[in-house]
Amino acid sequence: MDLLERDHERGVIGAALVSAAAGQGAGVAVVGDAGAGKSALLGSTYAADGLRVLRGGCDPLRTPRPLGPFRDVAGEAGFGPLLHGEGASLAHVCDELYDALRTRPTVLVVEDLHWVDAASVDVLRFLARRVGSMPLALLVSYRDHEIGLRHPVRPLLGDLARLDGLTTLHLSPLSVAGVGQLVAGTGLDADKVHAITGGNPFFVTEVAKDPGRPLPVSVRDAVLARTVDVDPEDLEVLQLVATAPDRLDDRVLPALGVDLPTLRRLEATGLLDRARGGLVFRHELARQALESTIPGGGAPRLHARVLDGLERIGTTEPAVLTHHAVAARDADRAVRYARAAAEEAIRAGSHTEAADFFRTALDHLDDAPPAERAELLLRLSFEQYMTSRLTEAIETVRATFPLWRDAGSDVGLAAAHETCAVYEYYNARRHRAEALVDRAADIAAEIGRGTGTGPPTGAAADPAQGTAWATRAFLAYMRNDVDRARRGLDDAARVAATGDHAQLALRTDLVRSLTALVEGDVTARGRLTDQVEAARAHGWDELASTGYSQLASLDVEQRRLRAAEQVLDASLPFTVERDIPICRHWQTAVRSRLHFAQGHWGAALEDAEDVLEREGMPVARLWPQLVAALVPLREGGTPPRRQLDTAWELASEIDEPMRRLPVLSALAESMWMTGETDPRVTEDAVREVARAADTTGMEWGVGDLAAWLVRLGLLDAWPAQVAEPFRMSAEGRAEEAASWWQRAGDSFNAAMALGDSTDPAHRTRAVEMLDQLGAGATADRQRVVLRADGVGQVPPRPRESTRANPSGLTNRQLDVARLVARGFTNAEIAARLYISPKTADHHVSAVLAKMGLSNRRAVMVRAEELGLV
Amino acid sequence: MRRFIIEREIEGASELTQEQLAGIASTSNAAAASLGVPYHWVQSYVAGDKLYCVHVAEDEETVREHARRGGFPANRVTEVATDFGPHTATSVAVAVR
């Protein structure tokens, strides 16, 4: 049958196939309601082409199969581990898929993304970003009405809307004329059929198959009309197939007693199809219609039969087994398979599904011993944390406390308190975190003394206590309490030395290096990078990533901006690859601050929004909030009320000097810009700058806040302990300070240091630099101050076209600009960034336009001045 | 009833152990029994990376249904047109002469 009223859509997909065959891939998303003809459209386009076609689908299982669509195509595509049902990490799957798809022109179809699992979304995003450089037509479909705000597929839909080479097609219902063509020769009235079906192609087709009957009022009725002549035994076979939304595996047919003559009779209904090694309904709407005919109480028996059959053939998909075990109301098997499915989901990096499976297991855990329930809850809490549901994770861990007590396990109780402490800290509740970790250490100490309950004395208790001490030391380090940090580290190190506790030992060493770096011992950087490498080599990913996070953070704090850039270049991809969300958020936040310091306002805002858009990990949100407030303030003079209030509340919750002072600095900058008096500046800031001046490692935060307070006339004398460039300013060496900042790559502070000078020539130069940086509002504010001070010759505002700066570039454009600055051609840039040369060309044009430069040579010549090398 | 040769590509087929072959045979028997139509598995040969099976069934589709139920590949299904061998040499010679 010809496809009606889809000529435009077929044209778009056809063009994608042609482009893929030529080596420059494209993606198309087909969007429409159930029955809108998404599969029919996709099927009609690639059928005729000579390209390899790989088809994968997502199923409406209770919880989706992790990487389900890619398991479907693994055999044909020829990539290993998934094929055999083995667990594979997300990064590994991406690599294998990339290799498999890069070498041979391919159409990859993934249908029904409204049922997709989280790991598959990551794989699809990976492909969507690279599709322009591969011979791949990536065709996906989904029902947009079934995708809520927190649906895992959302980020992919964002990519589809934003990235080059990707198109989204919305399928509209058929017109009356279209319906007329479908019902031609049946005697049916096109207007009436159109009114009843709303032009839904699947519905119309079903109606047209049975023109002799009264018009059905729903899709369900239309489907069930096909079954009126089916006898009860055969109907039960249809119902069996309906219990298996993925497919009814062909190999279970013998166990279910379904013979070939039965299948031949059912073929007459036109409802069934053979696909993916099993029996499926031609359309999900048909499956749902048949499922709805299963009598109340009949479903568990049908699911149990399918489950028995699947066990007999040794099915390796625990997600499918869980689906049937739950529906069969078989608690034991539901727990067993849900646990196995959770483990598989974890290996695949599908943490949303892992959490769902653990929840399913817990729901069916009837009379389990408390320790077993507690252990499962802990696993659940970790998956909740991994999916940024911190509040839920904390509740889940807290629910284990009474269970560990019932179980008489102090070891478990101590570990749960320590875990909860870490989550509370990520949730920006430092005081609560410290109380919990103290409690963990006390419980562990009692076991050590033999007064606790649970596994007896000595060796078993020590690691728990060492871990608690190490966490306590880390929290002390975070608030610059180096003495307490060091004591905690000494205690933890003693425990680590008593036995085979290599991870605890490394963790202790790493926090010790961080503490030294806070104290200003730059040689600790070398030790730290060695320790991070060691952690990576052992596979202790979270420890390695924490080391990176803190190193990058301190590098920016202490204004080693280029070093920070190198650390983040290595570490951010690692956090994505190894799936460590807290570190990814934290490091993206650090990069936001880094871009901000370098005057890359566009990229800074992009990173800030990235962190702020994600829920969870409040501890990482501070800098993004400051950046989101200060960039518009510096660029356009927008007063930042709301974000700074939120940041101040957050900083008060975290209550660490390294987090509080930057917020006070931002408030002071805002006051200096707007002239509105803020008691948090006039009172808190003045008090805290004095107090923090005695705190180890606060020379930078104190210097920055003091500089603003001096500009506001709120500070008579600079504090004694400030970092080098601030000391130069304090001593009136404005030019030296400015060149220090310029060398560090912080042009904004260079300009502000010159602006603080008493020399009018320095001050007018500062205004020009601020204009150059795109900090127009700050430049204007300096003009006002200059005029008020009676300086003549205030530089006028520049014309828009005379600015050349990279401040408006996005992260992607910044990457491109750096490569242009190094002399790479478009083809080389395309190869490095996995994009098509055409896309690279677009990027280069956008970069030149945004920087106001006429050609790429100008970028190379001015690279240093523009902060691109 | 018609006779078919089924080629099944299985990597390392020649290395399959007697136990594995027994398991395959039992799966195959169950699949054949479940069809509910006449089906006869005559003989199979393991050679290189392939199994060559001789089955008797009503049609090719039934052969493929048997393969699906057993979870076996059926890369090529060819109907046997005729057979001959040393014992047919004389009759052929006679016919030629």
TrEMBL record, chain A:
SMART domains, sorted: HTH_LUXR
HTH luxR-type domain boundaries: 802-867
Q: Which GO terms describe its molecular function?
A: adenylate cyclase activity; ATP binding; DNA binding
Residue ranges for the region (Disordered) are: 789-810
GO biological process annotations for this chain's record? regulation of DNA-templated transcription
> One Pfam family name from the record?
AAA_16
Decide whether keyword ATP-binding is in the record: yes
Answer yes or no on keyword Repeat: no
InterPro entries with a match to the protein in the record: AAA_16, P-loop_NTPase, Sig_transdc_resp-reg_C-effctor, TPR-like_helical_dom_sf, Tscrpt_reg_LuxR_C, WH-like_DNA-bd_sf
Recorded GO cellular component terms are:
cytoplasm
Q: Which UniProt keywords apply?
A: ATP-binding, Nucleotide-binding
Query: PANTHER family annotated for this entry?
Result: TESTICULAR SOLUBLE ADENYLYL CYCLASE, TRANSCRIPTIONAL ACTIVATOR DOMAIN
- What is this protein's name? Helix-turn-helix transcriptional regulator
Q: What is the lineage of its organism?
A: Bacteria, Bacillati, Actinomycetota, Actinomycetes, Propionibacteriales
Automatic annotation (TrEMBL), chain B:
Give one Pfam family: SCO4226-like
Q: What is this protein called?
A: DUF4242 domain-containing protein
* Phylogenetic classification of the source organism: Bacteria, Bacillati, Actinomycetota, Actinomycetes, Propionibacteriales
